[in-house]
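Minutes, project huddle
Topic: does the predicted pose make sense with magnesium ion bound?
PN asked that the exact inputs be recorded in the minutes so nobody has to dig through chat later. Recorded below.
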Amino acid sequence: MLATARGVPLTIAPEHRRRLLLLLPALIFLALAFALPLTLIAIRSVTDPAPGFDHYVTIGTASVYLRVLASTFGLALTVTLATVVLGYPVAYALARSRGAWRSLLVALVLLPFWTSLLVRTYAWMVILGRYGIVNQVLMALGITEEPLKLLHTSLATHLGMIHILLPFLILPVWSVMTRLDPALTMAARSLGASPLRAFLRVFVPLTLPGVMAGAMLVFILALGFYVTPALLGGPADLTLSMLISQQVSELLAWGFASALAVTLLVATLAVLALAGRFLGLGRIWEGLD
Amino acid sequence: MAPASGSRGAPVRLAGLRKDFGSSVAVDDLSLEVGAGEFLTLLGPSGSGKTTTLLMIAGFVAPTRGEVYVGGKPITRKPPHERDIGIVFQHYALFPHLKVFGNVAFPLQMRKQPAARIAERVAWALDLVRLGDMGGRYPHQLSGGQQQRVALARALVFEPSLLLMDEPLGALDRRLRETMQGELKRLQRSLDLTVICVTHDQEEALTLSDRIAVMNHGRVEQLGTPEELYERPLTPFVAQFLGESNALAASVLHGGADRVVVRTARGLEMVAAAVAPPGDGEVRLSIRPERVDFLQPGESCDNMVDAVIDEAVYLGDAVRYLLRTPTGEMLIAKARSAVGGGGPRMGDAVRIGWSADAVMVYPATAASIASGLPPPTKAGEGRGGG
Ligand SMILES: Nc1ncnc2c1ncn2[C@@H]1O[C@H](COP(=O)(O)OP(=O)(O)OP(=O)(O)O)[C@@H](O)[C@H]1O
Ligand SMILES: [Mg+2]
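Predicted holo structure (tokens), as shared on screen:
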């Protein structure tokens, strides 16, 4: 057992030491593949091409970078809200379903989850393209003469990201819902609550930790999303990750790209810290396990 | 207790209630009446349909057939929230996101009562269960017994016409359970509540109930006061389920108007103050261990036999003996523990006896205790048949 009282040296019991040993390969991998490159990037952001904080000053003062940062956050926020609105009822249906229905619903949620992100993004390109399914249907119905511009728009980015991130919201919410004691809603009903009021006053508040967990996951993933906005979005929908990629592959500005990456990381951590402060991080992890 | 209002327990009638789950019958043609202000317990082994019955009364399970009346009105087709029935759930089902006050206020808020009235009623209900100063705590900050009381206050605050409880004390330790039994009884009496309580704890049933319905396989095996059930069980099942019982298979040797002589498979003969049941003469016997006495030399009794003490278990207030007769019959006897620890010991040869009216005689076909339940006697003979 870990001795945590103040003044007592921190000793690790043999059985815990053995368990730590099991963690070792993962820790080594994380150190080599994650911590090391991250440190190198952080160092590069203040040394390349010359030592100093010039890059950060640029990011903080040139309005274009702040605007990209803001629109990245805006996109992540909208996508998160949309997944909550769309995902909560799906999780509810999953939690209430039995037998064959349940298997079908689980498959519907998980199948896209197991499909490559790139494939799903290309699927959206096919659907939304100039002569894609949507436009063909619209023209066949005579709703529009000319094909509409759907691809390479902000709408396409949103659609693609919501679709891809939806399972990350549904799964934690579903998990919390199935663990909720059914006696709680029964109690509410016996105490005089109609089905709707029992849902709103008892079920929803008690499944909120799951929503928070899922929303946080979606938000953080959305902040760093690259492939989908790059392929589906238009030139106006520049996200921070696209900007970073641009700096590296087109301008070979490794130092500036590193500074942008560090900015994204710090912003993400800040959101996590805020969430932990106001929503209770413990409750979020609770929802995730 | 400020604004306690008048009597509110309503009479309840279950008429031919039945519930099928697929091809299995959970509750089978259940009919019974509960008087206003009566405490009725549904007692029975696991799977006997107690919870299903309760859920049908509460409205969470739709009966396949039959009708539930509360206060003379049929409520079978009303949704749960319009039934005005208080329920205490086994694990209390307190709302973890609401404080004690919010939990107890919940039913009043659902009834759209004004805030002042709510505050007054909640204070009344919390005083009732002696938790007046706990309103500001969350359920997880309370002990098990306190949570139980909050659940009770919440179920009573809206003055329901009927209170249902499913294993209300099952999650508490023994000592706390006894305290709560006392409180529950006090509350039920002083508020004149109609209570239907589910338990498989026979001691709890005996302590709390005005009447007990012993259930088995979805049917009521016997309905009566605790005393009736204990002293005059109608079936071997009831005799074994309520208290301990020596269960023996026997055949009738000869029967009279009010006496019958029987012999067990191992050849133990005895006389019973009973009428021989119709049939082929095969019967089941049941004898309470506390009716089996140790005889002093010269003392005599309707039924007497020599025995050796195989086992003696000290229970505090009593000693439980396992006795072996010369023919190999095993009998349980229970005696008050003697002052200073005297009394027969393991290995002692003793003479035991029991009166004719201690022997209850049932037809051999009578339902016996459900399998899966530990037999109350080690006498293998008791388990045959049924
Ligand atoms: N929802 C259900 N679906 C199918 N069968 C059920 C359902 N609920 C109960 N049963 C069955 O009905 C029978 C009675 O169950 P019930 O829960 O009423 O028993 P109980 O007397 O409350 O038992 P316990 O003491 O274990 O709580 C059991 O055989 C059970 O398996
Ligand atoms: Mg039950």
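Observations noted during the meeting:
- Chain B is about 20% helix and 30% strand.
- The helical segments of chain B are 50-58, 100-110, 115-128, 144-156, 174-191, 202-208, 226-231, 236-241.
No decisions taken; revisit at the next huddle.
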